[in-house]
Design a protein that fits this description.
Layout: E1 3-7, H1 11-23, E2 27-31, H2 34-41, E3 49-52, H3 63-73, E4 78-83, H4 88-96, E5 101-104, H5 109-191, H6 198-223, E6 231-233, H7 235-244, H8 247-252, E7 255-260, E8 268-270, H9 272-291, E9 299-307, E10 312-319, H10 349-359, E11 363-369, E12 373-381, E13 384-385, E14 388-389
Helix pairs in contact: 2-3, 5-6, 7-9, 9-10
Length: 418
């Protein structure tokens, strides 16, 4: 229903117009001065049509001043002027102030209805344009964000490609002299007696060589994925295998592990070694995060798995550790970036993990609150073979070659929080 504000200093005119408009199903409010009209407009939230006179001899404001204030403060309203002073000067001023219509007194009611209809059409058209503009801006923003994401992915792909070629070359050049150093170190160790003080230096040397070998292996894995075979595999078994590598470490550091891995989860098409590498990295990061706590709260890591929908399995690894600083979170998956000290991290673990998950047509993401903890989530497509979901009973050790389903891009949130 169209709402109308009548503004006139003659009560008889106000009453006559009000009765006529209400008979034609308009909602009408009245004011006998421009000042009172403005006070009524303060209470209106939707566009309305204002019908006003120009001359108000007893008031401190005329109709034109009312129009100026309305257009400035309430630009969505439309204004119709009804006046007995229909001079060319007044008509031009009304047009200049963007009044919707100018009707001379005495007013023909049919003309007033036509003027109201035109004003209402202008309001509706303005609303349509506003909604369309907002929708267009939203679509443009979505498309812009999508383009930015694609550009970021292309840039990252280019970095990985260039870094992969460099890494492969570096691995080859470093491994030969390192093998020589380790071999000669072993020979020296065999010639020394057990109580020789030099042995402690050799042990330190061997530890540094082992660290160098680990770095080279990470670089090699980063530069190329050696094992590209895929087979049906159980997520639960892969996580259990990864946890077994940390069992004693977690006990020594008094870290509580909570596992929520339901039986009968669908199988995925994956590579056992690579997927275990992902889980080992995520558990290792969670362990280091809770070990960095300076307060006395319980160290806790939660591993939760669930069938998210008909197509995916969701795995979340959540810790209550130190969290990741907000200004660093955008760089977490960058190659050679690490929040750990130089002695503890190479900055390749999460980059390699993302590469592996991408190869499996899955997604990896995280949320982190500094001081409260971090949750990494991995979403993987359920194995489909000949149009049927392969359940645990159908598991086979035979290699399977199948097209991997591509997951649609979506926001990933952790399954549970601590």
């Amino acid at each position: 229903m169209v709402k109308i504000l009548l503004v006139d200093d003659q009560q008889s005119i106000l009453q006559a117009y009000k009765e006529f408009l209400e008979e034609n199903n308009f909602l009408v409010i009245t004011a006998d001065t421009p000042r009172k009209a403005l006070s009524l407009l303060d209470k209106e939230t939707l566009p309305i049509i204002i019908i006003t006179d120009i001359k108000f001899p007893a008031a401190d404001m005329d109709g034109f001043e009312l129009i100026r204030k309305v257009k400035k403060e309430y630009p969505l309203h439309e204004i119709i002027i009804i006046s007995g002073h229909a001079t060319m000067e007044f008509v031009i001023e009304a047009i200049r102030l963007d009044a919707s219509d100018f009707i001379p007194k005495p007013c023909e009611m049919n003309l007033l209805l036509l003027a109201i209809n035109r004003a209402d059409n202008k309001i509706q058209m303005r609303q349509i344009i506003k909604e369309y503009t907002e929708s267009l801006e939203h679509n443009v923003q979505e498309r812009t964000d999508e383009i930015k994401r694609m550009e970021a992915q292309l840039i990252q792909a280019a970095k990985l490609s260039a870094m992969g070629e460099l890494s492969a070359s570096v691995c080859h050049e470093l491994r030969q002299p390192l093998c020589g150093i380790m071999g000669f170190s072993d020979l020296i160790g065999k010639k020394l007696s057990e109580d020789n003080s030099t042995k402690s230096y050799l042990e330190k040397l061997n530890k540094q060589c082992e660290r160098m070998e680990e770095l080279i292996e990470n670089l090699r894995t980063f530069s190329r994925q050696a094992d590209t075979s895929f087979e049906p595999m159980s997520i639960g078994e892969s996580i259990e295998d990864a946890l077994s590598l940390f069992d004693q470490q977690l006990k020594n550091h008094h870290i509580k592990i909570t596992k929520e891995i339901p039986q009968g989860l669908p199988l995925i098409l994956g590579n056992k070694t690579k997927l275990q590498q992902v889980f080992v990295n995520l558990i290792c990061n969670a362990r280091d995060a809770v070990n960095s706590l300076t307060n006395q709260k319980e160290k806790h890591i939660l591993i939760h798995c669930q069938k998210k929908d008909q197509d995916t399995v969701l795995i979340s690894i959540t810790d209550n550790g130190v969290g990741i600083k907000r200004n660093l979170q955008a760089r977490v998956f960058d190659s050679f970036f690490s929040t750990k000290s130089v002695k503890k991290g190479t900055g390749l673990g999460l980059s390699i993990a993302r590469t592996i998950i991408d190869d499996l047509k899955g997604q990896i993401d995280f949320v982190s609150t500094p001081g409260e903890g971090t949750s990494f989530t991995v979403e993987l497509p359920i194995l489909e073979l000949l149009g049927q979901k392969i359940q645990r009973a159908d598991f086979s050790s035979e290699k399977v070659v199948a097209e991997k389903p591509l997951l649609p891009r979506r926001e990933i949130t952790p399954g549970l929080s601590l």
